[in-house]
Amino acid sequence: MLRAISTHVFLPQRLHAGLLDALVAGGAQSIELFAARHHFDYTDRAEIKELASWFRSNDCRATLHQPIFEPGLGQWSRHQPATLNLIDPDKGRRITAMDEVKRALETAEQIDIDSVVLHLGGRDDKWNERSLDLSITAIEHIKAFAHPLGVKTLLETLHNDVTTPEHLLEILRSGHFDTVGVCLDVGHMNLPGMPRLDEAFGVLAGRIAELHLHDNRGQRDEHCWPGDGTVDWGVVREGIAGARPEAKAVLEIGYEPELLVKTVSENAAKAFRLIEA
């Protein structure tokens, strides 16, 4: 798998070339751009142009994480819950979420983006015929928009009932989405009510195009560095060994205000050594 790091680790900061340099210094062969306007403003042409120039000048790929925050919320904080939901029961809110994801995808006109990771549903969304239908509709719209831009669509396993490995497979089969892949979030599989990690790898075998790698202590979605929680990294290594070589292993780490940029590079290199041991 390709080593990758998400800019999520710098989420409170405005993204710039120096931060991308730090991720490459940590071993990143690909960078996941976390689409949040206060961080990576996908509506700012000058900012996109600057980042596009960086990617053209560096031997590094790019992927995109869909926006999960509505614009205009005021000051962002780490306690801000996701407010964009592509399968929200309210049609107006679904349209708002869809429009925001499309705005972020337009950056692929300048930055060569390989894939976009989608969230289907919030924490309390349940699996039923309605959520299945709304998921299929959302994927069809995003895929139709992303495909001409050369961007592959991926679905993430979240800590909810809609995106368990089995339910994601049902969505993909029902929608006949043969070219849509899965982003298996390792940390989410370590939370209450989720299937075991080895089971998730088994169910999704052949569909995993990306992994989100982070740790926790089994109760909250903490996004710790690998090794700082209770995730079984031996199981992760086995899953990586059976994955496609072009798949991406993305460190998706929560930010720490006091953490130096240099320390992020060092921690990332250490995490990759742990994962690949």
TrEMBL record:
<dbReference type="InterPro" id="IPR050312">
    <property type="entry name" value="IolE/XylAMocC-like"/>
</dbReference>
<dbReference type="Pfam" id="PF01261">
    <property type="entry name" value="AP_endonuc_2"/>
</dbReference>
<dbReference type="InterPro" id="IPR036237">
    <property type="entry name" value="Xyl_isomerase-like_sf"/>
</dbReference>
<keyword id="KW-0413">Isomerase</keyword>
<dbReference type="GO" id="GO:0016853">
    <property type="term" value="F:isomerase activity"/>
</dbReference>
<protein>
    <submittedName>
        <fullName>Sugar phosphate isomerase/epimerase family protein</fullName>
    </submittedName>
</protein>
<feature type="domain" description="Xylose isomerase-like TIM barrel">
    <location>
        <begin position="21"/>
        <end position="253"/>
    </location>
</feature>
<dbReference type="InterPro" id="IPR013022">
    <property type="entry name" value="Xyl_isomerase-like_TIM-brl"/>
</dbReference>
